[in-house]
Amino acid sequence: MTRARHTDVRETIGDDHPTCRLRDVLDRVGDKWSVLVMDLLGDGPKRYSELQRSIAGISQRMLTLTLRSLERDGLVERTVTPTSPPRVDYALTPVGRTLSSQVSGLIVWARQHRDYVAASRARYDAS
Amino acid sequence: MTRARHTDVRETIGDDHPTCRLRDVLDRVGDKWSVLVMDLLGDGPKRYSELQRSIAGISQRMLTLTLRSLERDGLVERTVTPTSPPRVDYALTPVGRTLSSQVSGLIVWARQHRDYVAASRARYDAS
DNA sequence: CGGTATCCGACCGGATACTG
DNA sequence: CAGTATCCGGTCGGATACCG
Description:
Organism (chains A, B): Nonomuraea roseoviolacea subsp. carminata
Structural class of chain A: mainly alpha
Strand content of chain A: 5-15%
Shape of chain A: elongated
Oligomer: homodimer
Order of helices and strands of chain A: HHEHHEEH
InterPro entries (chains A, B): HTH_HxlR, WH-like_DNA-bd_sf, WH_DNA-bd_sf
Protein name (chains A, B): DNA-binding HxlR family transcriptional regulator
Keywords (chains A, B): DNA-binding, Transcription, Transcription regulation
Number of strands of chain A: 3
Largest sheet of chain A: 3 strands, antiparallel
GO molecular function, one term (chains A, B): DNA binding
Largest interface: A-B, 61 and 55 residues
């Protein structure tokens, strides 16, 4: 939202001119909390409190904001069971699952190459 | 298998050791400029000024910082030709290419689903 | 339980100026 | 051409408090 601040993006990157859209989606992937949430939800629906426990370090504020934007993008579905106290479940939508599998590929990459990256950094910083 | 395809994101994130390295790598993907630069370099080596021209909207500062961190991570190689004026070329390393291909998967996803995402947002914002 | 509202410090990144 | 240095406004996100 209001990413328009960042000037007019008429660029040669990608084939399609509105790179803003492309960037919007990539920003979603770029968000570290979104990635972690989508990865967890790839395992199946989870309650709010489950997510909060699983992602130690995330603040209530950020968990809510993350879930809201994922829901807004149609990647996550929110289900409220009006018991008392209320129960809220989050699950990936079908489209959300397709993104989740892409993200999963990235995570696999990250795990496979983290030693390489760490070594590269050490070497770079040494010189 | 219910959770085999997932990473150990369940580890705490509060303590910085185990997961933060994973996150460091994902942050690289998360950076919007890094993604664009890697995508461009996927086509072959490029000069500094070519990148700057292709990615309209990027500041000189950010292009330099982005390239430096990609180089530090061993994903991009910097080659200086000491002519006058100097010429600097950037190219993906072999490992950089493997990440680049993951990234292109994401970009393909983004193109395929950008209408869906846009529609979801419109519907969400309307309610 | 599952949020919302508000404050505020940290950091990110654009603009600008200068250099080998 | 390919950077580095500095300033600084804006945003992100943690902490805290409160609510249905």
